[in-house]
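Reviewers asked in the last cycle whether our approach scales beyond single polypeptides. To address this, we selected a multi-component target totalling 439 residues and predicted its structure end to end. The input consisted of the following lines:
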Amino acid sequence: MAATKPVPTLLLVGVIAVGAAALVTGSYEFSRDRIEANRQALLLQSLNDVLATGDDTGVLNPTRIDLSDPQLLGYEDPIDVYIVLDAGRPRAAVFPVVAPDGYHAAIHLLIGVSADGVVTGVRVVDHRETPGLGDVIEADKSDWILQFDGKSLMSPDRAQWAVEDDGGSFDSITSATVTARAVVGGVRTALEFFEARSAELSARAAARAEEEPVNE
Amino acid sequence: MSRIKVLVLGGLWRNNPALVQLLGLCPLLAVTTTLVNGLTLGLATLVVVATTNTIVSSMRRSLMPVVRIPLFVLIIASIVTCIDLLTSALLFELHEILGLFIPLIITNCAILAQAETVASRRPVTESLLSGIATGLGFCGALVALGALRELVGQGTLFAGFDLLLGPWAAALRIDLPFEGMLVAVLPPGAFFGLAVVLALRNLVSARTGPSVRRMRAVPARRS
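The resulting structure, written as structure tokens, was:
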């Protein structure tokens, strides 16, 4: 091998590194806005899913509030709570919740709750349950997750917030009882969180709406 | 046989990166749960290998041996990053499914092997052709394995093509009167499926060619 000359070698590496950086920067600039738009669309889509509005108009201006309650929600960091305001009054809230006791790992849920504490919808955002058994909690795979719609801590009453196998009133999942139990527990926790903090949420959402009447 | 024909046939069949050299098995096994996933990752890999081959080959006279490997990796990594960003911008739903595995194309040794053994020694046209052939060979293996696992695992074929081609492609989906065997979609199924595809490839190649003996005499290099 010929003796290496350090200067041209470094120069070559520098030129190629700058070229590579330019290429990556260029495609980042090109994609950034689209990726952001895609993320927003996905977020709006999932908000609409759990709010069961069926149209896009209901959630166009969700007010975002960050709130921290690691004990109930399972998230260490503050979470985003989306409040849907109807003529200045909170109509529903959407927020993420963790069911920590999934079969393989924590199950991440997104839940919509109306102002009077009734579930408008639940969707599984992320999970590691067994494909073909536990993954029927996905809305794409089965209707199981839809059984929470319209439920609240009053109906069924608190003691009934469990799967059938445990004497509760929610359908369990064959061969995936642990999964079903975790999701039911997660939804109940979410409702308890909402019950405990809904006054605070409403007040903050109303204050926020007065500050910025249009959109953020 | 001309050199180009040797290169192209080598990438596609005789020296297929996935089925003969057994390179890049991590993405191969991980994403091939459906045909569309396999096809998309295969196409992304094809673009990466063809582009890096072209770039490396056009710079081959100025590439100094001591720094060539870091430079190959740098070039491959930037191209993969670009592809990752572009799929995220243009094919968002598919990117949500494949997201984790697109950056992993960087670690596919088949691409580095192409840069080292072909692109840094041959003219641009040959390198590009060889890159395309290798990419197609890899893509073909992913498609075959994806189709097999989707067929056995879910009893469907061409499901989810609307994510790649737009809403009209949802009609391509074929449903078989058959529930599917879960194991094919799970990780063990990936290994079983790969074994089946490898066995089929070896069977065909044993039936068809005198090349078998030569392959035995000069085993493919592995890494």
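The radius of gyration of chain B is 18 Å. We regard this as preliminary and will revisit it once experimental data from Aim 1 are available.
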